[in-house]
Amino acid sequence: MRPEHRLVDGGAKQAARLKVGFVLSRCFTLSAFALFVDTLRLASDEQDRSGRVLADWQVIGSTRHLITSSCGVQVAPTSDFVDPSRFDYIVVVGGLLSVENPIDQQTIAFLRLADAKKVPLIGVCTGSFILAAAGLMKRHESCVSWLHYKEFRERFPDLSVRSDRLFNLDRQRGSCAGGSSAADMAALLVRKYISRDAERNALEVLQIEKARTTSDIQPRRPLYDDYDDARVKAAMITMEQFVDGSMPIEKLAAMVGLSRRQLERIFIEKTGMSPAKAYNRVRMERAKSILAQSKAPLIEIALDVGFENASQFTRTFKRTFGQTPSQHRAAVSRAH
Question: What 3-state DSSP class applies to 151?
Answer without folding.
Answer: helix
